[in-house]
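To assess whether the prediction recovers the assembly geometry, we first specified each molecular entity separately, as shown.
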Amino acid sequence: MSQSLDAYLVLSGILFAIGTFGFLARRNAISMLMSIELMLNAVNLAIVAFGAFIPKLATAGSVIALMVIAVAAAEATVGLAIVIAIYRNRKTPLVDEYDAMRR
Amino acid sequence: MPRGLLTILGSLALLGALVALPLGLVLVGLITFGDDVLFFVLAEVLILSGLLVVTMRDIIRCGLAMIVCFGALAGIYVIAGAPLVAAAQVLVYIGAISVLILFAIMLTQTKDAPAALVFQTQALAAAAAAVVLAIVIALTVGATDWGAAGERIHTATAQLAEVLFNQYVLPFEVVSVLLLAAVVGGVFLAKREEGGPS
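The predicted structure of the complete assembly is given in tokenized form:
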């Protein structure tokens, strides 16, 4: 099982689906950011799995995964800063109450 | 019986079930002993904690479940033969991003937040879409010939450094500039304005 690419890819797909559900269904902006982190991790798992099983990608897989981790860190920093800035103005972390552009 | 004791007993029972399932599969002969059992247990922990992240009511517990999820994923990276990525996962995700998210939760939590509704009205449709997505990905993975080798290829750290600092040195530097820009942007966005509302 741990010797087949399919197991890793299916696991990655399940984790990505969980993240998708969280992003679509949660009301809290930080919960949505956490779901995005889950999805990024799922993609990273797929990249590492490809690197581990396809000879052409042997080391490139790990390099790309490291780059994705760094970019995800940047994304988390800016995303959380935006959430905190919005929270300071609207006093709520719930995204369905951010309706200033609908009224 | 006190509630704390019940929680501990329940967690122990769950842990036992998580370990017993792959051992049962070994006995049946579906998987072999060794890495497979470890992979199975880590995959179970990963999926369960991922589900807890998106379903639990109390958002601070969601954050803690997310740390468990990242830890299990680091273990899977080790099994996949990428120890440096696993180390980066522990350092960056468990060490930095989780702490960042926990701090953001504490900064934005209101008194009535846990009591309010957790899910949007489209939660059921979202769940259906997620299940369909998982099934489609699984079917696609099963139907595609990836040209994969039968054996895992272990990525040695020295070899990885060689590639990272020769072939990929420009992306590496660009990422460092990106991180700097993100830090400056984050500080600018989150800082209080002079004389503005506190």
